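= Paired protein data =
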Amino acid sequence: MTAWEIQKLIMTIIAVVLIVLFDLYLYQALRTLIHGLSTGWRRGFIVFFWGITIVSAIGIVMVGYGPKTLINNELRRIIVVTTFLIYFSKVFGVLTLLIDDIYRGGKWIAAKLFNITSRTTAKAGGITRSEFISKATMIAVAAPLTTFGFGIVSGAYNFRVRRATIALPNLPSAFDGIRIGQISDIHTGSFFSRSGVKKGVDLFLSEKPDIIFFTGDLVNDVAAEVKEYKDMFSHIKAPLGVFSTLGNHDYGDYRRWSTLEAKKKNFQDLIRAQKEMGWDLLMNENRRIRVDGEEIAIIGVENWGAGRFSKYGKLEEAYKGAEDVPVKLLLSHDPSHWDAQIRPEYGDIDVTFAGHTHGFQFGVEIGNFKWSPSQYIYKQWAGLYRENNQYLYVNRGFGFLGYPGRVGILPEVTIIELKKA
């Protein structure tokens, strides 16, 4: 066995052992709840509970070792996500039981140390402590499972139009009022509903933007993912053109390739797919857009992310030749690029368009209040930001990755209007 095969075997064994231990621990809560049921119902609940454990364990093994003819990438993704959601929810139940066990353990130790006689409390309000903890545990499991399940059914394709207006003092009069449409993070490999995707595309096109920007992550890993949706996204057109750039997932860096040549071919297939859709892919280059004899520049840089993310972007190269254009609009997938390089070194780039964060696909947005775990990772993670005379817009994403849904942070198509200040 190779080192990778040994590592995969160990990870599989650990995953199976963990889910069995989780369910053994949770079973004590289930046993308390069902003790008063008839024999038939009790057996049914037990079979259902352990059936999920067995199916999850088999699924984990099949993901690692199942034949590719049987376990394709889509089925593998469904198994992984479903198992993750079930056991992520069970974590809350385990924590509830653990807190109670620590409490009872502390009482037992105190009783032994200080010779305190334990007294059994009768039912208070018709429920014993054990029954209360068991019900609390089941609620702790059910609440996140229900929430994230709802996010799949209701949130995955619940598109919202986000609008913003940006006033630029140097904007040529011919572009005063230009409406820019932005989409980002499509992740075609994650979709499970063509009708849901079409709803988002139709909503976007109904806004009739003058020019369209796509800011990266067309696929999860493989160019072939876009094949089923290429016809749909080919309908995305605008009078002044559709311009795109690449995200960190578009390079195939998160997949094990048989050869370097296979990875290079996949990348070329992705570039070809964007051209076939009629999108002008900007790979560290720029375009001048002319209207009535006046110009603005569209600059597109390949993925550049602060920290551990890939840095294919060459902003100096992309910027070259646009120095004299009065307004410069930059497409850069990762918003961390803005503070790390764009603002410090290119103070005349007026607006940067980014995506990448997905708003974590989870959070709260009520009026002007917004919260998401994403904000603990990215300073700019959703919406419009301004520093001096420079702007950044971070799109919340059209698609999804990993978790096939959204809770609170819904999928977005953006319309930004530029006005002359």
